[in-house]
# Entry
Amino acid sequence: MEIGPRLLRFPLTPYDGDTFSYESTHGNAAGRFGVIFAGSGAITSKVVVENLDTDRLGAFTRK
# Structure
């Protein structure tokens, strides 16, 4: 996963089904967080990055 204007890279590690985790190592590093891919069938329509979604800013939806 790449985040931010400097495109910081965070490898995703499989956790359970459509849930992955990554280790936060930059800025306000606070450990391991979840990334959840949701959708219908083979199409992912929503991705939620757990630690970015505390203020509802970490959910990304394909329209």
Q: What stands out?
A: The beta strands are 2-3, 8-9, 13-16, 19-24, 31-40, 43-49, 59-61. The CA atoms of residues 15 and 60 lie 20 Å apart. The chain has no helices and seven strands. The mean pLDDT is 86.
